[in-house]
Amino acid sequence: MASVDQEEGNAGVEAGTDSQGRYDGAGSDSGARAAADGNRAGIGGMANPGKYGIERVAYWLMRLTGLGLLAYFIGHIYETSSILQGKMGWDEFLAITQTTEGHILLAIVIGMCVFHTVNGIRVMLGHGGVGVGRAARPDYPYVPASQNYRHKLGIYTAIVLAAIAMMYGLAVMFGV
Amino acid sequence: MASAILRESTIMKIHYGTALAAVALVAVHVLMRLTSGGFAESLEYETVLANYRFLPYALMLEIILVLLSIHGFNGLRVILLELRQGPRYEKAVSYGCVAAMFALIAYGSRTIIMTNMGMV
What we know:
By secondary structure, chain A is mostly helical. Chain A has helices at residues 2-9, 29-38, 42-47, 54-80, 86-97, 100-127, 149-173. The longest helix of chain A is centred in the middle third of the chain and has 28 residues, at 100-127. Chain B has helices at 2-5, 8-35, 39-42, 45-53, 55-83, 87-116. The A-B interface holds A 1-3, 6, 9, 43, 63, 66-67, 69-70, 73-74, 77-78, 80-81, 83-84, 86-87, 90-91, 94, 98, 113, 117, 120, 124, 127, 172-173, 175 and B 8, 12, 15-16, 19-20, 23, 26, 34, 39-40, 43, 45, 48-49, 52, 65, 68-69, 72-73, 75-76, 78-79, 82-83, 104, 107-108, 110-111, 114-115, 119-120.
């Protein structure tokens, strides 16, 4: 997911600076300098999801859900290996996961999985040029063509579908 | 470094390919939990053992294991390389992720193979 996400990561690059935040001579001096200073915030600045809109939120959610799912996957492989200890070993491990906390954790995993999948498909489509509009000369205020309403809608859809899937998962696990 | 063996664009194509294939197979895996007479029943020892001993299902689990390990550890590699760069760091991250991926595949395969062959 690197390329398009990196593009999302550059959502906050302002006029007068290049993608690394260096001053490139364009735009007013003070504005460009302020933008360059803003881009010196380092990882803390990059991590700020509030400043750059829903694309930056999606950027972070994509990484956090990815790491969460990898942690769950490793845990799941370890959990299922308890079957090698026979029925007793399996039932003992299952008892740990079949609790209210276990079900809530699994519901969060379901939500992470759905968001990661739907947003991942959006990123893949964007990477392939789908829904990013026609190539055009960049003009002020330099809004990236890929950050249009289609992709915003894709991000919101991913969040809503994740919430629905979590609720469905909870209903199944708690037998509602 | 992984990119010395494979181009980064090729790695990303593999990343996307494994993602799409995993989505389809994980959907089947989750549906098996929901259609095997209820969620709780599908997790009973006998049901799970029967699933593992059914060769096509065991093969599907093995494929899911490989796909998700490749996708997951490449994703981790990408995240770590975004945070910091440098020849030694990049090499360590790439080799570390490949090693962790093989370790997880080996550990998961052990469960699938031993259960499928009736060694439980």
